[in-house]
Amino acid sequence: MSDQAVRCYRHPDRETGIRCTRCERPICPECMVSASVGFQCPECVSSGSGTGHAPRANAPRTVAGGAHVDDPRLVTKVLLGINVAVWIAVMVTDGILLDSLELFGRAALTEGGPLEGVAEGQWYRLLTATFLHQTPMHIAFNMLSLWWLGPPLEMALGRARFLALYLLSGLGGSALTYLVAPENQPSLGASGAIFGLLGATAVLLRRLNYDMRPVIILLVLNLIFTFTWSNIAWEAHVGGLVVGTLVAYGMVHAPREKRVLVQRLTCAAALLAIIVVVGVRTLQLTP
User: Fold this and answer.
1) Cα dihedral sign for 79, 135, 141, 275?
2) What is the pLDDT of residues 202-244, one digit of tens each?
3) What number of other Cβ atoms are within 10 A of residue 106's Cβ?
4) What are the residue ranges spanned by the domains of the chain?
5) Residue 250, CB half-sphere, CA atoms under 13 Å: how many?
6) Could you report the per-residue pLDDT of 45-92, keeping only the tens digit for each?
7) Which residues, at least 6 apart from 193, have a Cβ–Cβ distance to it below 8 Å?
8) Which residues are identified as catalytic?
9) Which CATH class is domain 74-285?
10) Which residues contact 129 (CB under 8 A, 6 or more apart)?
11) Cα–Cα distance between 229 and 60 in angstroms, integer?
């Protein structure tokens, strides 16, 4: 098989196993336009309109229905920038900001200390905790993972769907941690969101019929580290992985005719499940 046959005709540096159903040219996720059967390349979609430019209703879309953009890494860059900025702020404030944004407040982290955090109505901590890091190794590992996993997913899903996936995965990790972890167990970091992206990558590769062995091996290794290394909140990893996998499945397998509706319902169901979990745990902790 020639090199051209397995690489996107618009992006020669990207290997692919998908071809346009009309011209049979190989296309990567960024170039895929969902059709009634399979995928088409942007040129075939444009030429099919008879005007040389696809009308707005038939504009090229990603595998999940997102719009093609000039910079498919924008949301990934913004999320990375926010994480780094918050880490710097935590270092500068000497723990004051950390205490205000972590899943459990400093008083609750002391055995027998008073409740402080989500149980006291500070639900924002479920999200802010996912942007907190303390050690350079912690943030470096998470940000490298985000930079590696984020762009391909953002390219395939589109910006809005990718952002929803990231945030829901992070919230899912926080919710499971809040539900089952001891009140005095610190929990912070983007690991839940990263595991959600890892699960989503597996779903996307399966959807595109790509070789899944590399991502499966990576997932297994990360799960081994999760349950064997000390000072790792496995609850955040597992919660993020489950939510990210399910949300991604709903996004890439939604039927074309009702794609937006199914995707919105998938995200809404994930958010509702998170709210229920947090509500149940809050009732357990408060009189």
Assistant:
1) negative
2) 999 999 888 888 899 999 999 998 888 877 888 999 999 999 9
3) 16
4) 4-58, 74-285
5) 20
6) 776 543 333 434 455 677 888 777 778 899 999 999 999 999 999 989
7) 130, 146, 166, 167, 169, 170, 173, 240, 244
8) 191, 237
9) mainly alpha
10) 101, 102, 103, 174, 187, 188, 189
11) 45
